[in-house]
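Bump. Still looking for Addiction module antidote protein structure tokens.
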Amino acid sequence: MTTTEFDAAEYLDSPEMIATYLKVAFEENDAALIRTALNDVARAKGMTSMAAESKITRQALYKALGPNGNMTLETLLNVLRAMGVRLSVSG
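Sorry for the wait, here they are.
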């Protein structure tokens, strides 16, 4: 039997799917999971276009979304805008 590694980025092919995926990640309140989900979406949309749309260099984007990334709020908002989603708060 042959197996392949699962890559969520391969399934993030619509704005609705992206929004749902990120919503679930944010609901978990786990910074590493959120960073991974943002990385998956960025790869699905293409890192080069994400870098251009977010006005962040590709290298900085890879670093921010990498396993040890710790992006600023400004970077997070730029990345979310480039992904076509908005951050929302509810109580």
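Residues 14-83 form one domain.

Edit: fixed formatting.
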